[in-house]
Amino acid sequence: MVQKAKILLVDDRPENLLALEAILSALDQTLVRASSGEEALKALLTDDFAVILLDVQMPGMDGFETAAHIKRRERTRDIPIIFLTAINHGPHHTFRGYAAGAVDYISKPFDPWVLRAKVSVFVELYMKNCQLREQAALLRLQLEGGGGKAAGADSKEPAGLLAELSARLAAVEEQAEALSKQLDDESADAAAVATAAHLERKLTGLRRALDALEPGTGSTSSVSSQN
User: Fold this and answer.
1) Which of 89, 159, 214, 220 lies most in the core, judged by the most C-beta atoms within 10 Å?
2) How far, in whole angstroms, is CA 74 from its chain's centroid?
3) Could you tell me the CA-to-CA distances from 191 to 36, 185, 196 in Å, in that order?
4) Do 71 and 103 touch, CB atoms closer than 8 A?
5) pLDDT (tens digit per residue) in 141-192
């Protein structure tokens, strides 16, 4: 069963949070509310998020300061941040948002469909990364001689486990390729394209490591250096 991704919604106005939930409910993911920058940072201490929608203007710790704290933490620095603002901003204001680590900067009122489409891309990338980590963990178990203890594979021989790993990886590779083509077609944000490219590089490395485990390809000593 695929676990749902978590999306963090940060805004000090309850009506704005309610509107975001209405827009993003169609994605069928877990939406987490935070009414301040401090509350958002607290949520990020314990949970993993696919993307953060962050209001710029908030009392106390504003969106820029909140983003700076997020990017300074090793655990959260790679989470995509989409800034939402009602300010009639100029180029300098927009630059400040990107400098704070945002992958996008959207002015209110925004097109609900556009926001939902942007968020869905980062959710999909997050899901692919989760699948990739699962395949890497199973492969690591095999390399360490613990393949028999892998989830759902306790009765499988090494060859059978390799075949299962290969099939699972192939499914992720196919989905990642389709996502990359979709991003190219839609002229998506540079950050999303770069994240997808990084995912594909990881998949390529994992495929090479898995291929090296196949009978007749030599020892697995060369594989460990690729993980």
Assistant:
1) 89
2) 15
3) 26, 15, 9
4) no
5) 776 665 444 444 444 455 666 676 777 777 777 777 767 676 665 555 666 6
